[in-house]
């Protein structure tokens, strides 16, 4: 029997990390995940994947560590000797990045540099995926945005992602590393964090329908996003590391919807009148101008055969149905919840 390929995922406890771990395990990989030590459990998204590390044949291993700890990253890389490294860890919320700009830069920008440098210093021969973001384009971007569009971010998160993006290009060109950026547009799922707008909406719809709350407080409803389905996006990440040449790609659906469109569709799907339940809270309005995000994913389709098949209308239904099924089960491991789609 041949030795399985080994992957290291930072951010394995997050939305994308959990789907990527599933995908790689299905493909026969040995999967190693960096998880933060926390005073409460932060592994509910991967609980259903748990395997006893002492049992023969186990292919999922979790390691305590942070993207802020260079020595730990180097030691883990030497120990695991991964063939592929996926950097998905760090402060990932744009709104929070205005409150915590320094922490965002520390984990999202310098974190990526630390990991790239750890790969270089440890001498491990691996391919590197960096989770770049459409937040790098900013409010004055071309429409739609492609790999050739200029980056002009206007959020601490976007600026941090841009630092990491160019660091990845620098290690590719300077040191010959197979290091690539997936410029991913927003992607969501029932596992999306509860403070991102789509999940905030789908969860509120479920709770309002169940009579647990009456109102949903949101910021700007006119902003548009290109929202795709997270399980499809992790497949694009994997494909990028299997390519013949290291190359950066936009990952997007190519369609755009406003927050209001999402709200209307979600409340409609549950048979509720959104205007009776949605209120504005200025705390959720961002301090800088927002971007009109719509991605041109033509290159990844032509070169890697990847294309989004779940678009926003279907995504709304997946998320609302999952939250309706899960109402009252928050905090439980995914395996114990009622079927939550994806
Ligand atoms: P997520 O659900 O917020 O997951 C973030 C992960 O990073 C979690 O596992 C978190 O651990 C971990 N993390 C946070 N700080 C860390 C630190 N100091 N050291 C190590 N790990 C740390 O985000 P996601 O939606 O899966 O996104 C994955 C990546 O893609 C992120 O880098 C995000 O910025 C980027 N991205 C996402 C989207 C999107 O629409 N989802 C679009 C473009 C780019 P805990 O579980 O302990 O908090
Ligand atoms: P982002 O695109 O990475 O910032 O993802 P989010 O899901 O956090 O926000 C998507 C869009 O929804 C942004 O343009 C926000 O300004 C807008 N939005 C409107 N109301 C809210 C809210 O209550 N929470 C969040 N997170 N975003 C909101």
Would you mind describing this structure in some detail?
By secondary structure, the chain is an alpha/beta fold. It has a single domain (about 5-335), classed as Rossmann fold. Helix content is about 40%, strand content about 15%. The protein has ten helices and 13 strands. The protein has helices at about 15-25, 70-80, 95-100, 100-120, 155-175, 195-210, 230-240, 260-270, 300-305, 310-325; strands at about 5-10, 30-35, 60-65, 85, 125-135, 180-185, 185-190, 215-220, 225, 230, 250, 255-260, 280. The strands form four sheets. The protein has a seven-stranded parallel β-sheet, sandwiched between helices. Helix 1 (about 15-25) packs across helix 7 (about 230-240), helix 2 (about 70-80) packs parallel to helix 4 (about 100-120) and helix 6 packs across helix 10 (about 310-325). The model has no long low-confidence stretch (mean pLDDT about 95). NADP nicotinamide-adenine-dinucleotide phosphate (NAP) binds near residues 10, 17, 92 and 184.
């Amino acid at each position: 029997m041949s030795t399985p390929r080994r992957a290291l995922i930072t951010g394995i406890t997050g939305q994308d990390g959990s789907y990527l771990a599933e995908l790689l395990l299905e493909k026969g990989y040995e999967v190693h995940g960096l998880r933060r030590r926390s005073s409460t459990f932060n592994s509910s998204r991967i609980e259903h994947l748990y395997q006893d590390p002492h049992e023969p044949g186990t292919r999922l291993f979790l390691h305590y560590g942070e993207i802020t700890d260079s020595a730990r990253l180097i030691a883990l890389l030497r120990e695991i000797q991964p063939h592929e490294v996926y950097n998905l860890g760090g402060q990932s919320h744009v709104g929070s990045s205005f409150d915590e700009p320094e922490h965002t830069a520390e984990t999202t920008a310098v974190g990526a540099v630390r990991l790239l440098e750890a790969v270089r210093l440890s001498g491990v021969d691996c391919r590197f995926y960096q989770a770049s973001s459409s937040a790098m384009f900013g409010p004055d971007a071309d429409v739609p945005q492609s790999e050739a569009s200029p980056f002009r971010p206007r959020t601490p998160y976007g600026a941090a992602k841009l630092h990491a993006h160019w660091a990845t290009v620098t290690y590719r060109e300077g040191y010959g590393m197979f290091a690539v950026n997936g410029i991913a547009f927003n992607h969501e799922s029932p596992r999306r964090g509860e403070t991102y707008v789509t999940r905030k909406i789908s969860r509120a719809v479920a709770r309002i329908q169940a009579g647990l709350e009456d109102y949903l407080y949101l910021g700007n409803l006119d902003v548009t996003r290109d929202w795709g389905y997270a399980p499809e996006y992790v497949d694009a990440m994997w494909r990028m590391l299997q390519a013949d040449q290291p190359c950066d790609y936009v990952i997007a659906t190519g369609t755009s919807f406003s927050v209001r469109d999402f709200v209307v569709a979600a409340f409609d799907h549950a048979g509720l009148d959104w205007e009776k339940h949605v209120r504005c809270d200025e705390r959720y309005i961002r301090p800088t101008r927002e971007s009109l995000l719509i991605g041109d994913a033509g290159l990844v389709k032509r070169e890697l055969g990847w294309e989004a098949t779940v678009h926003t209308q279907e995504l709304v239904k997946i998320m609302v149905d999952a939250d309706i099924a899960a109402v009252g089960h928050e905090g439980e491991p995914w395996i114990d919840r009622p079927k939550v789609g994806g």
